[in-house]
Design goal:
Blueprint (H helix, E strand, L loop, with lengths): L1 E2 L3 H10 L11 E3 L6 H15 L6 E3 L13 H4 L22 H11 L4 E5 L4 H9 L7 E7 L13 H5 L1 H8 L5 E4 L1 H4 L3 E2 L1 H8 L4 H21 L4 E2 L3 H8 L4 E6 L1 E3 L10 E3 L11 E7 L1 H14 L3
Parallel strand pairs: 1-2, 2-3, 4-5, 5-6, 6-12
Antiparallel strand pairs: 7-8, 9-12, 10-11
The structure holds beta-D-ribofuranose and calcium ion.
The site of calcium ion has 10 residues, from helix 1.
Length: 306
């Protein structure tokens, strides 16, 4: 899991790393995005500590995008990148000595089975791994991404993760590896409203309480900045799909990333009507079964008590 936690990245980690999860997390790697890579790493370590998953290593990755300077999303995730819950200033867990890019390359090479890379932040580490060691494509089952969509949240047409490092995103979409994309078209359908938060507040365990604190903060910034009635649990869609693909409708399509225009830098160009007649390079999520999403999350949160 390559991430920049981040409230919704935290929820993705919690869903993936539950005790009886069908998914095995080989490594967590961090990237500059919602906040600096230092803050995102600290958050990842604190989240894994709350989850009781001290066995999962965290490796620190890129401090900035490939070409652009770094830009953060403090207005959405706060100064810490994970404002809301009270977390230790200095995490008990420590990151590994290895750079995230080497952790990605080595985890892929060492695995006896094909590996899915889940990317819930800017794609800088993944692009760098593909540039450093192009042969890794043979070990990748899919790259499952939260990013993009047919509209934007950072510019009128660009979503944050893709906009932060559109050059990296271009490299990833040109890689030839199977890609699953969860963009704003579906993530804005799964809003953690008051009703959802109150439902999870009934679950009595520390993880559920942590999630309630995350969602409460996230809901407040989404109200202030986007006038939305709940925080979209963007990044969690990647894990929900890997756990239960039947919850999502996916369209096989061709996706390009705009990285040259000042006006539309970071825009994901999704050819849903097959205008270009180019070879399909991604599965793009177009719909999601929202009630079943909340049921699944509730079940996973409850499982933390057992
Ligand atoms: C994406 O940007 C970040 O703020 C979230 O963590 C998510 O990955 C949504 O645009
Ligand atoms: Ca994220």
């Amino acid at each position: 899991m390559d991430c920049d936690p981040g409230h919704d990245d935290a929820i993705a980690l919690i869903l993936a790393g539950a005790k009886h999860s069908a998914l095995e997390i080989l490594a967590v790697t961090t990237v500059a995005g919602n906040q600096s890579v230092e803050k995102n790493t600290k958050n990842a370590l604190n989240i894994l500590e709350v989850m009781g998953r001290k066995d999962i290593g965290v490796s620190v990755g890129a401090t900035r995008p490939l070409i652009k300077p770094a830009s953060f999303a403090a207005q959405i995730h706060g100064d810490t990148g994970l404002d809301g819950p009270k977390l230790p200033e200095v995490p008990t867990l420590k990151p590994t000595a290895k750079h995230a890019v080497d952790t990605i390359i080595e985890s892929l090479k060492q695995s006896t089975e094909p590996v899915t890379i889940v990317a819930t932040g800017p794609l800088t580490n993944i692009a760098t791994a593909l540039i450093k060691e192009p042969s890794i494509t043979q070990y990748i089952e899919s790259i499952t991404i939260m990013g993009g969509g047919t509209f934007g949240n950072w510019t009128p047409t660009a979503e944050f993760n893709i906009w932060v490092d559109a050059e990296a995103a271009t490299r990833v979409f040109d890689s030839g590896v199977p890609i699953n994309v969860f963009g704003l078209d579906v993530t804005h359908q799964v809003l953690a409203t008051d009703e959802v938060i109150q439902r999870f507040a009934k679950i009595e365990n520390p993880i559920a309480r942590f999630v309630v604190e995350l969602l409460t903060f996230f809901k407040s910034t989404y109200k202030t900045h986007f006038n939305m009635d709940g925080g979209p649990i963007h990044d969690a869609c990647t894990i929900l799909y890997l756990l239960k693909p039947e919850l999502f409708t996916m369209q096989h399509t061709h996706i390009d990333i705009e990285h040259q225009s000042a006006l539309t830098y970071g825009t994901m160009v999704v050819d849903l009507s097959n205008v270009l007649q180019k070879e399909n390079n991604a599965y793009f999520a177009t719909a999601v079964d929202v009630p079943k999403v909340w049921d699944l999350i509730e079940n996973i949160l409850e499982s933390y008590a057992q």
